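yo, Sulfatase is done. seq:
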Amino acid sequence: MSEHPRTPRTGTVGRRGFIAGAAAVAASATATATGLAHPAAAAAAAGNGSAAAARPNILLIVTDDQPKHTDWAIPQTIDWLGGHGVTFTHGHSATPLCAPSRSSIFSGRHAHHHGVRNNAASHSLDQSTTVQRHLAQAGYRTGLFGKYLNSWTLADNPPHFEEFALLQPGYHNARWNVDGTVQQLSGYTTNIVKNRTLAFLDKSTTDTRPWFAYVTPYASHAPNTPAPKYAETPVPAWNGRPSVPEDDRSDKPPYIRNATSTLDDGRETRTRQLRSLLSVDDAVQAIREKLAALGQLENTLVIFTGDNGYTWADHGWTKKSVPYSPAHEVPFYLSWPARGLGGGTTDQRIVANIDIAPTILDAAGIARPAGQDGRSLLGPAARDHLLVQWWKQGTGAEGPTSWASYVAKEKQYTEYYDLHTDAAGNVSGTGQVTFREYYDLAADPYQLKNLLYQATPAQEQALGVPALAAQLAADRSA
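structure:
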């Protein structure tokens, strides 16, 4: 469902202009799926050896629960990172849940390797494997501004960040750990994240080390509270999509058959999320302007993504944690003009949060550590599918059971299991497959018809399900 530009704000360029400009730039230069230019190759082509030798600054912006189809709320972000960078059309979260996803961003590993399988298990992450540790060790100045990991104790300083304003999730007058001191800060937290980031960037005028800034506002996580000035901002009308709410769910797993969210529920969630993202867009624009003023816009690698997506009553479900596209598809942008990645191109490769740490380390000239599952987006490597998975915490009857999914552009195969985790992320259960789904995404992008429902063995064979099941098993055990 296409979005519409939001109403221009006084004193700003109209949102319609931002989106139209970004779209025009992207349409004028579309990259193939063969990969982005490698830094050395781009530098050689530019004939700029001295600039090529300089390590880039690195800005990683991770929003919370932001699905795709939220372009209306972030046109300034799209103008910068889409119009002057690379738009990845197939961006995913390898585990659509906050702490596992963020741990994958930090480590470049799937959750079954880093061990943070649920939001309670954040302390299971081996901090020596994180991108911030490698960058700090390599001489980068490191900063964190906003949310870190769910269940992380606020008084515990986040390892390998030299400067930080760690948010206890909230929107107004929240508690923070600022460089080791727990305190309450007055104001809207997205604005505080912005201002702390700008102050961190300003220090580069006297500290010549390259820097890494992890910027992570709480938006658009529930309760999706907008800044006061956006509390009543009109949001374009939305009539749902075919999966909202999908009246006939007889071919779906029990938790979806019993789901009760309506189109009105989806509309309400969408409206709140979009309004909360307006301040994120303002923050990104302020950071862009600061980098330009500091002369650092060209040689800063910027990556923008969401930690996971979110459903808007798709299949009756208004949450995350499910194997349906709105929950694991996320916006994904990259810009690095000094290395030739500033031209407003699109990249159709399947990419994921596990690719962020390898990309950053590649850009910084740091050798890839053992154990990473992702790959650098600066090279030509491409995958034909992605492992996406999620684990149920506890043994309660509500919600989905643990599942794993083979996700390709044109198809998706999912298995649900008799498995659950404890608070530390340890897994128990029989592992028995309890339900399966297969969707032809080319013909059925909204995942309305589960082709395995009442399918015969011959039909499963024709769909290639045995081979998909074998590959999924291999991916899970790799």
